Amino acid sequence: MSASPEQRLREEGFRRVYVWQDGPHASYPDHSHPVDTAHIILDGEMTLTCGGSTETYVAGQRPPDIPAGAVHSARMGPQGCRYLIGEK
Q1: Which pLDDT value is given to residue 2?
Q2: What is the pTM of this model?
Q3: CA torsion, points 25, 83, 34, 14, in degrees to nearest 10?
Q4: Cα angle vertex 83, ends 80, 86, to 5°?
Q5: How many C-beta atoms surround the C-beta of residue 2 within 10 A?
Q6: Residue 6, SS3?
Q7: How far apart are CA 33 and CA 44, in angstroms?
Q8: What is the DSSP code (8-state) at residue 52?
Q9: How many Cα atoms are found within 13 Å in the side-chain-facing hemisphere of 83?
Q10: Which residues of 17-30 are buried (b: 16+ CB within 10 A; e: fewer)?
Q11: 23-78 confidence digits (pLDDT tens)
């Protein structure tokens, strides 16, 4: 039996793991976090910009983890987005 996405993040050392949900077209302008973060898309889509690269991720995908202090931005798709967040 394979581990759940939450279990996998915990096994990778993410101490805080929780689900977050944003409405349609919600956006977060350039910002950073004091901890490493991971995101696993559960429903909907998220377009993430980090390090000069912009990619869209859908349910079941995991964008690259974002290191502490890295400036990034995010925009949710037309159906919004529900995602698992891990913080180290």
Answers
A1: 78
A2: 0.93
A3: -170
A4: 150
A5: 6
A6: helix
A7: 23
A8: T
A9: 29
A10: beeeebeeeeeeee
A11: 999 999 999 999 999 999 999 999 999 989 999 999 999 999 999 999 999 999 99
